[in-house]
């Protein structure tokens, strides 16, 4: 086992961070800085490599749970919480800066923004994106969880937030855990109901995006938002 204290001083992750900058560090080195310490059996660098190699991507780590991470040798609850908290901060930074960079005026923009939240989930989540007059995001709101149907997706829940936020338009977004984004009959019915309510309230639903794995379906692109 190769301990941090046995490494040349300038090759230790924190010192490399200070000397060369954060961009110069490998992903597992950044993870090691977050975790801070290893165990008697496993150095923090070995632990960090094991985590990164097991999951193969930062996205996969972010989709894991505290329970799953603690199955790894040397990974206790505190370290698992530290790592997931750091990744959540990174996601929130992206969410804060994204609306400044792009208006939500194209389905691809919406998919790029929402895929981190929805792409890898094992249950359906229904979000509404509330937009201003320039199609910039005012707020992203999770409204429903579970198998979606018109019986549980109530327009009043969608539009009460729109009124409170003075939104000019709405995009509704949900995922298909199967990975296939093609709409079901229930999806089509929900879209029709939401669009009708949007016209009545003069807060149009300008798209319904279904997120699959690596791809999406846009009712607007397919000219099915009537």
Structure description:
By secondary structure, the protein is an alpha+beta fold. The protein folds into two domains: 4-96, DNA polymerase, domain 1, CATH 1.10.150; 102-218, Cytidine Deaminase, domain 2 (3-Layer(aba) Sandwich). 46% of the residues lie in helices and 15% in strands. It is built from nine helices and five strands; from the N terminus they run H-H-H-H-H-H-H-E-E-H-E-H-E-E. It has helices at residues 13-20, 27-35, 44-55, 58-62, 66-69, 77-101, 107-118, 155-165, 185-201; strands at residues 125-131, 137-145, 169-175, 205-211, 216-218. Strands 2-1-3-4-5 form a five-stranded mixed sheet, with helices on both faces. Strand 3, helix 9 (185-201) and strand 4 form a beta-alpha-beta unit. The chain is elongated, with a radius of gyration of 22 Å. It starts with 12 loop residues before the first helix and ends in an 8-residue tail after the last strand. The model has no long low-confidence stretch (mean pLDDT 88).
């Amino acid at each position: 086992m190769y301990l941090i204290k046995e490494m040349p001083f300038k090759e230790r992750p924190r010192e490399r961070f200070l000397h060369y900058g954060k961009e110069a560090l490998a992903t597992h080195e950044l993870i090691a800085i977050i975790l801070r310490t290893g165990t008697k059996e496993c150095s923090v660098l070995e632990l960090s490599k094991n985590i990164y190699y097991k999951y193969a991507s930062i996205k996969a780590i972010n989709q894991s749970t505290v329970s799953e991470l603690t199955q790894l040798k040397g990974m206790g609850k505190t370290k698992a919480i530290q790592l997931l908290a750091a990744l959540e901060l990174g996601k929130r930074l992206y969410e804060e800066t994204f609306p400044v960079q792009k208006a939500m005026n194209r389905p691809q923009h919406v998919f790029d923004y929402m895929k981190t939240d929805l792409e890898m989930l094992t249950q359906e989540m229904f979000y509404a994106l509330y937009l201003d007059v320039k199609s910039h995001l005012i707020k992203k709101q999770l409204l429903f969880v579970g198998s979606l149907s018109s019986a549980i997706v109530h327009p009043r829940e969608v539009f009460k937030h729109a009124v409170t936020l003075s939104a000019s338009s709405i995009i509704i977004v949900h995922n298909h855990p199967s990975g296939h984004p093609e709409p079901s009959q229930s999806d089509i019915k929900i879209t029709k109901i939401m669009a009708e309510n949007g016209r009545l309230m003069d807060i149009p639903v300008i798209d319904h995006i279904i997120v699959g794995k690596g791809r999406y379906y846009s009712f607007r692109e397919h000219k099915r938002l009537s």
